[in-house]
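> call design_seq(struct)
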């Protein structure tokens, strides 16, 4: 019991700190959409879509390999030192390549007028890579408080610097024309200030992790290093495919958007990226769920009633995300205020599609328990790669005709296909008695209420009237859920009293 309590506490620290950091960073969206033009916001979105790909290459699964081999009968210091020297050497090499080919990469990303963005991004990636194993060492040493503190402080520093560069620095440059502030400020940098803020925040994070970094000992094992590479490189392939599914559509949109000029392409990317943020309201819940669910699933895996427990968890997960879908989709008139540039609202039609995509991804994470319990992680990589191929093909063929709408539909097709494949494959390997008919019914009624709202509100011009219609439909849907789950909900404290 004590070990489970300890695990729950650590999960809370790691999970909540990760979610809090992502949420704080998420709050930059209204600020940046207000301060930056659509094209400039698109440029920074391109950079921050490319960085995760390069992070996967720079780290090549070594963090997971460190955890795997540290838990075997191997000296932990030797594992940490071998992995660290490997990452340090490769990071220097990869950073040199980025700097050497920065103009080519800038052209590839449709940022040919800003090769300096590649230079600055290279230093962000370099610093982030060098902190990967120190962060992992904190987790391995069971130091969740320090881990959470540094993660959140890093994001807060980044947010503060972004605000300084776009709000305070221009004012200080005008007020003190002969000062350093005037030399530092250049409106032509545009989206680059977000990358500069990232460099400083990552540098300070590295400084906070310096004790862990300096704990590297002069130990190296060729045999251990080769074993770690064999283990980690397949993870890199799967991680790369995952990044294609998650962020590559913005880069492809910058290449093939059906508009004439570079600025118009960046505007398309900016509009899509800003509206994409609204679908992440469900993603935050899914991330929180994953942090708690994975330990829970493994803890119950040896019980005879484990499949029934997994089916029950899936049911309430689907109910929750269906309610969240309606909460976002029926109140888009409110949520769109999160995007402070009204010119970007033209892209709001992608939000329901992306919400459905993220719902599919959430269900996929639930279903993924079968290949994790059966130690068949290659199956997970295979499904992810299939999703990546679908993403590439749909975007390649349809972006030139439909722009960011193709990106949204490609994301939905990718994640829904992964969900369906995982369901049928998993039921053959590790059967779980999901009440599929009931789940599809809950989902179908949700879609019915959404399209009903869409039809009714197409005749209503008043925002408050549309909000009223959405509220009524949401309440009816909640009543429907309570009715079909009355017996289950009645067993729960607080909720049970209300249902009765």
């Amino acid at each position: 019991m004590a070990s489970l309590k300890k695990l729950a506490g650590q999960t809370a620290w790691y999970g909540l700190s990760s979610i809090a950091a992502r949420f704080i960073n998420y709050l930059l969206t209204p600020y940046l959409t207000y301060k930056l033009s659509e094209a400039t916001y698109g440029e920074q979105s391109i950079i921050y879509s490319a960085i995760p790909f390069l992070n996967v290459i720079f780290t090549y699964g070594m963090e997971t390999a460190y955890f795997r081999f540290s838990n075997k009968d191997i000296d932990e210091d030797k594992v940490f030192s071998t992995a660290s020297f490997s990452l340090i050497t490769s990071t220097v090499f990869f950073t040199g390549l980025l700097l050497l080919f920065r103009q080519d990469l800038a052209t590839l990303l449709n940022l040919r007028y800003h090769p300096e963005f590649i230079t600055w991004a290279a230093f962000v990636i370099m610093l982030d890579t060098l902190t990967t194993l120190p962060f992992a060492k904190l987790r391995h040493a069971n130091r969740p408080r320090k881990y959470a503190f540094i993660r959140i402080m890093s994001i807060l520093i980044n947010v503060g610097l972004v605000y300084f560069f776009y709000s305070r620095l221009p004012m200080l440059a005008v007020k003190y024309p002969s000062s350093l502030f005037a030399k530092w400020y250049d409106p032509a940098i545009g989206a680059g200030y977000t990358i500069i803020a990232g460099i400083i925040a990552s540098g300070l994070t590295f400084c906070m992790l310096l004790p862990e970094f300096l704990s590297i000992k002069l130990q190296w094992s060729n045999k251990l290093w080769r074993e770690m590479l064999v283990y980690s490189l397949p993870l890199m392939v799967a991680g790369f495919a995952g990044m294609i599914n998650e962020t590559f559509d913005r880069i492809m949109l910058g290449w093939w958007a059906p508009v004439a000029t570079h600025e118009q392409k960046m505007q398309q990317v900016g509009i899509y990226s800003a509206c994409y943020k609204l679908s992440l309201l469900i993603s935050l819940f899914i991330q929180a769920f994953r942090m708690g669910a994975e330990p829970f699933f493994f803890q119950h895996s040896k019980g005879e009633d484990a499949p029934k427990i997994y089916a029950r968890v899936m049911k309430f997960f689907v109910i929750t995300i269906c309610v969240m879908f309606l909460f976002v989709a029926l109140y888009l008139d409110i949520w769109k205020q999160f995007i402070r540039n009204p010119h970007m609202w033209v892209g709001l039609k992608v939000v329901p599609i992306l919400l459905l995509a993220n719902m599919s991804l959430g269900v996929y994470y639930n279903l993924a328990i079968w290949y994790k319990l059966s130690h068949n992680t290659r199956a997970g990589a295979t499904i992810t790669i299939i999703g990546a191929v679908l993403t590439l093909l749909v975007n390649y063929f349809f972006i030139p005709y439909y722009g960011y709408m193709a990106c949204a539909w490609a994301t939905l097709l990718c994640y829904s296909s992964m969900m369906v494949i995982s369901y049928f494959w998993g039921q053959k390997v590790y059967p779980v008695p999901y009440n599929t008919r009931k789940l599809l019914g809950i989902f179908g009624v949700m879609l019915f209420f959404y399209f009903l709202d869409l039809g009714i509100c197409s005749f209503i011009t008043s925002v408050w009237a549309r909000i009223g219609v959405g509220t009524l439909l949401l309440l009816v849907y909640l009543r429907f859920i309570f009715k079909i789950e009355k017996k289950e909900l009645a067993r729960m404290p607080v909720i049970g009293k209300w249902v009765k």
